[in-house]
Batch of 3 targets.
Target 1
Amino acid sequence: MMSGNKPIVIGHRGAAGEAPENTLASFALALEQGADGIELDVHLSADGEIVVCHDPDLDRTTNGTGFIHRKSWDEIKRLDAGLWFSEAYTGERVPLLREVFELVPSGILINIEVKHAYEGHMEKALLAFLQKSGRWEDVVISSFDHKVIRRIKHAESKAKVGLLYAANLIDHAAYARQIDIDVFSLHPYFHAIEKEDVQGALAAGLEVYPYTVNRVEDYKRLIEKGVSGIITDFPAKLRDLLK
């Protein structure tokens, strides 16, 4: 997923530095800015819809309050998810995963971060959705909950899965091997991976997508380390540097 030694550009929650995170406007802006992929977060509504939002509750990024899993989609879709960011985005809504898939063309990476297992209901809903969409090639499912990732891969061998983590592990590639599934990608906190860790992971056939990198000097450091992709709030800034 890397051209030459240029990392791919992955828009964090879209272009979250310049638009309200995890909205269709943010994802559209990331694509416009030349992102090769987008990263987003999912939760389940009370009626089982896959809702794109980072927090488990609606308080920070909408004009509503309360936990997503206690609200129906009908309640959630009425909320404003743009005004908190700027008046220019008034009326922007919390999207469903399905709506993001309708917006993002085939061939663009969609990194779905599972925030919560919801007692196994999330992976069932997610796999049912992906089976219907058929876009296995475009999608990487990641989570800090590595048990969820293992269950997803056991349930569906076609799923590409990634491990999110913040620890500077002794051997990043060996950790991936020990989970007894075919891991596609590592998603380390960008300060917590050294050049030899990146090289070891690539040699083991793993993609390396550090998060969340926003400063030019950090982009340069990671490009030098040889990472496969960089997750950033500012896709245009990274794209300009890579040019």
Target 2
Amino acid sequence: MARPDKSAAVADLKNRFEGSHAAVVTAYTGLTVAQLKELRRSLGEQTQYRVAKNTLTKIAANEAGVSGLDEFFKGSTAVAFISGDPVEAAKGLRDFAKDNPALVIKGGVLDGKALSAEEITKLADLESREVLLAKLAGGMKASMAKAAATFQAPLSKFVRTADALRSKVEEQSGAGEPAPAE
């Protein structure tokens, strides 16, 4: 029979897996408590970094319907549960791992799809969601401005042509009449 404390730990981990968009599994051997605290702070409020027992984490992941992580639960393991922007969290982990080589990214999962360490690094190289949305909005605005200019062009060309024709008619009608006598 399972002990109540282990059952509670599995239930907590299962809820974290279900409530997050992504999870990244890391090895943390060699990091001090102060470094782990710094890592948690650098990941922000949208990401929770938890050290957990491999067996309990594996059970919780399977109960939550997350597959493909079993191979990563060997040795010292901690999981970053990401409920916010996965790109920002991946960047935070990558940058921290550069400064602290003891942190090793093993792999993870994003929206139910298992990711390798290389794929998480590629994810970290992406621009943030806000930057990508701003670029998309800028591109859409430019397209609309181009379309508006295209629709206005025939109208303005017509106005210039009509004005030139009116000027020509005035010149011709003024040149054919005799000058007024004084």
Target 3
Amino acid sequence: MSTRTPISWDEYFMGIAIFSSLRSKDPNTQVGACIVDKDHKVVSIGYNGMPRGIDESQVSWEKGEGLDSKYLYVCHAEFNAILNTRNGSALDGCTLYVTLFPCNECAKAIIQTGIKEVVYAENKYEDTTMTKASIHLLHLAGVKIRKYIGRIPHIEMV
């Protein structure tokens, strides 16, 4: 009989978010998100990428300036997970697992859809105005924010 300890729900859902991030073509920051309901069922997933139907060779993945900046084109993982949901009302009361702390624009979408908790793995932009605004918005809306504490699965890429 195995003595292996099963992973926790947090580890399971953050693992899905991490695995989803591997779909991103962003050369610098791959982000994944997983939205789950109170019954531990996955409602939606997403990763940071270009909008559907966009020829990615026609836009930049660089941090450049003006029209050569990826920030003007990329949909964030959380936003994609929200948009990928078949029924927006299904997000009310859900938990969002995300590999990178949400920006202020994604925080607005999180609040508007009724997501009640955000579990994040990393907050590398915590000192920026954008992230401070995001934290402020989430607190004002009563959305619980929690740093992920748990094992990070290693996924071998071939």
